[in-house]
């Protein structure tokens, strides 16, 4: 977990759903007395919840659900008077000491303590109704006026009308004191102002937290004139909310809107009876009946035809439901060799996604090991609800992985887009990620292994940059996206953020900055101009990780800056890096190859993209280092592609072989390797 202890004015922290190494609650967090909100759900935390966290003077909410906290929960002593909400759902707490003065929300459901006969009857062992936030809207000024059951009181004029209703779900509000009415008064005002409604014509109710810790707000909006909206008004308001054209006040954060049906359109009198003539009504009814009958018949016919076509074609277009109006290339992915799996197949091969088959997790969801019907081991990445909105990234990764073939790139076996699921199926890799192995997973990485891992990773990226047509920029190169197979061959993984570069755009792509903190190219971050050199910078950070075994950002210190300040060319033994280099490779620091590796890494992380080498140049340099160490650099690109001339004509990236040679061997060349090469995903 990153050390944010230097941010002494931090008010809120949310580190949920990350793949940090398991740890206790960090000490630096307990020293930040300005914190109002601590949210670390599914963060891999264990140990006892420290009492100190509940005494932070400004703290208003603590959400530590779905972790592995155990022992005794101690909420006694000087508990913060502002603390409104504590959520410890699904941990392993076996005992709880709660001060009697704390009478606000505490959720302990899913902990062993709630199985204790004496404690189980406590309201802390149930999802508490007092999680409803007491908010009083301006409707109180209307007194005791009552309306019929299908109408509501309009707070703008204290009359009865048919409101347009729905629920707004705010995913991560930045404030924590939800008893402060000022926040919701601002929300009311912004709704009627930005949606073009009469002042005061919005009513908020049922303000509460969902089981996903979203802030839920029920909203009623009333017409500016008359007692109901017309069709165009409802369409306009619904569009602004559903498509997020409406921007809530600062602090509410991202949201989504779920509308209730609205049938009370303008044109009906107060009794609900239409003002249109009886003859017109009859004519409309007959016409609508005919249209409905025709549409129903057409729908049934289309459905039968579609099902018959799918049976005949073997469901050759499984992505038809995605539509073709995407903002990117649109339509169904152009796939080469990726297999469509049914949900039931993947459910069976993972034993119904059993917990003991889980091999990883992250913000996207979980990864399970499975055995396919042909006995192939597979890693199945299953997206959770919150990450399924990244349908573009899902499609992007499928398209990219199905069209690139190199032994140092992860390759896709198949995917599932069924029953609301988004799953990617990769070949299983047993030795995990580079980051896991650098953190003493149990397998010793000596200097020679590290050089080969760096070379393999560089070759995979060079293939993307040089041979893909159009070129591919990975955009999220990091040690957790480099996998190691049984023989420690490196494979670059996770193409969810990757970008294609068309020939007309080669050089850079203007794009929203995405990536991982610590690996981001500073020039890309400042200019939003993405290029292959952005991947080179990230790879340079990985090289520094290989040298030091450290995370890019640790205890507030950035690895690039630490190396830059420490390097001393006059130090013949350690190049000035004795205090930084991983002790496991101290002996290698005396070699010429070590010094050149450091220099190459620093060239890759140069702040100016134009001064960084290409990935092809990096490959050649590392091959020379391995040669000088008296080692083979493994199969060069020439060997890797020796069968390319006999490859199928359907290969996407066919072209002339371009061979670049160093003193030892070729570095990267023409065509992709033969298609039977296999890859994986964490």
UniProtKB/TrEMBL annotation:
Residues 353-626 form the Protein kinase domain. It comes from Panicum hallii var. hallii. Its EC number is 2.7.11.1. The keyword Kinase applies. It is an enzyme of class 2 (transferase). This is non-specific serine/threonine protein kinase. Coiled coil: none annotated. One of its GO terms (cellular component) is plasma membrane. It comes from the Eukaryota. Residues 673-682 have a biased composition (Basic and acidic residues). Residues 660-682 are annotated as: Disordered. It is found in: Cell membrane; Membrane. The chain crosses the membrane at residues 25-46, 280-301. It holds the Pfam family PK_Tyr_Ser-Thr. Keywords: ATP-binding, Glycoprotein, Kinase, Leucine-rich repeat, Membrane, Nucleotide-binding, Receptor, Repeat, Serine/threonine-protein kinase, Signal, Transferase, Transmembrane, Transmembrane helix. ATP binds at residue 381. InterPro entries: Kinase-like_dom_sf (IPR011009), LRR_dom_sf (IPR032675), Prot_kinase_dom (IPR000719), Protein_kinase_ATP_BS (IPR017441), Ser-Thr/Tyr_kinase_cat_dom (IPR001245), Ser/Thr_kinase_AS (IPR008271). Its main location: membrane. GO terms for molecular function: ATP binding; protein serine/threonine kinase activity.
């Amino acid at each position: 977990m990153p050390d944010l202890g230097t941010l002494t004015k931090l008010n809120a922290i949310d580190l949920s759903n990350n793949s940090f190494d398991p740890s206790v609650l960090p000490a630096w967090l307990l020293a930040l007395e300005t914190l109002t909100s601590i949210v670390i759900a599914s963060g891999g935390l264990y140990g006892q919840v420290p009492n100190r966290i509940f005494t932070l003077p400004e703290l208003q909410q603590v959400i530590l659900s779905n972790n592995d906290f155990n022992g005794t929960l101690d909420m006694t002593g000087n508990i913060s008077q502002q603390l409104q909400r504590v959520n410890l759902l699904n941990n392993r707490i076996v005992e709880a000491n709660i001060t009697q003065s704390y009478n606000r929300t505490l959720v302990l459901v899913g902990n062993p303590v709630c199985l204790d006969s004496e404690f189980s009857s406590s309201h802390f062992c149930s999802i508490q109704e007092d999680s409803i936030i007491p908010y009083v809207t301006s409707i109180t000024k209307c007194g005791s006026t009552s309306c019929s059951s299908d109408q509501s009181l309009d707070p703008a004029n204290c009359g009865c009308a048919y409101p347009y209703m729905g629920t707004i779900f705010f995913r991560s509000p930045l404030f924590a004191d939800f008893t402060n009415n000022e926040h919701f008064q601002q929300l009311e005002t912004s709704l009627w102002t930005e949606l073009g409604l009469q002042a005061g014509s919005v009513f908020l109710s049922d303000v509460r937290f969902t089981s996903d810790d979203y802030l839920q707000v029920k909203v009623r909006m009333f017409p500016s004139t008359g007692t109901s909206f017309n069709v165009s008004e409802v369409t306009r308001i619904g569009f602004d909310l559903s498509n997020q054209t409406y921007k809530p006040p600062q602090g509410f954060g991202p949201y989504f809107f779920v509308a209730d049906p609205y049938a009370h359109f303008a044109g009906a009198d107060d009794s609900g009876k239409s003002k249109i003539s009886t003859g017109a009504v009859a004519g409309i009814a007959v016409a609508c009946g005919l249209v409905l009958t025709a549409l129903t018949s057409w729908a049934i016919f289309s459905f039968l035809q579609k099902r018959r076509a799918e049976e005949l074609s073997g469901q050759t277009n499984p992505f038809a439901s995605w539509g073709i109006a995407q903002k990117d290339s649109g339509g169904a992915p152009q796939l080469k060799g990726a297999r469509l799996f049914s949900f039931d197949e993947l459910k069976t091969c993972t034993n119904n996604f059993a917990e003991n088959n889980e091999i990883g997790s992250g913000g996207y969801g979980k990864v399970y090991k499975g055995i396919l019907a042909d006995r192939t081991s597979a890693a199945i990445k299953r997206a959770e609800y919150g990450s399924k909105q990244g349908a573009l990234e899902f499609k992007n990764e499928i398209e990219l992985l199905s069209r690139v073939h190199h032994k140092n790139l992860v390759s896709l076996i198949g995917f599932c887009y069924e029953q609301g699921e988004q799953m990617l199926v990769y070949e299983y890799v047993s030795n995990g990620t580079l980051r896991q192995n650098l953190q003493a997973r149990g397998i010793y990485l000596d200097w020679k292994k590290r050089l080969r891992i760096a070379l393999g990773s560089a070759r995979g990226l060079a293939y993307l940059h040089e041979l893909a047509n159009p070129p591919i920029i990975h955009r999220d190169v990091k040690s957790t996206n480099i996998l190691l197979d049984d023989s420690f061959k490196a494979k670059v993984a996770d193409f969810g953020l990757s970008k294609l570069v068309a020939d007309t755009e080669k050089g850079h792509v203007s794009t929203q900055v995405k990536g991982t903190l610590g690996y981001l190219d500073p020039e890309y971050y400042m200019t939003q101009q993405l290029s292959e050199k952005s991947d080179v910078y990230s790879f340079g950070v990985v090289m520094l990780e290989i040298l030091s075994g450290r995370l890019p950002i640790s205890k507030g210190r950035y690895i690039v800056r630490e190396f830059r300040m420490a390097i001393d060319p006059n130090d013949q033994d350690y190049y000035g890096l004795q205090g930084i280099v991983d002790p496991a490779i101290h002996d290698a620091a005396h070699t010429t190859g070590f010094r050149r590796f450091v220099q190459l890494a620093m060239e890759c992380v140069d702040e100016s993209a134009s001064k960084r080498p290409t990935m092809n140049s990096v490959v050649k340099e590392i091959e020379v280092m391995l040669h000088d160490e008296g080692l083979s650099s493994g199969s060069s690109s020439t060997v890797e592609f020796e069968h390319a001339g006999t490859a199928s004509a359907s290969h996407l990236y066919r072209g002339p072989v371009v061979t670049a040679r160093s003193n030892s061997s070729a570095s990267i060349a023409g065509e992709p390797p033969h298609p039977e090469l296999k890859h994986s995903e964490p």
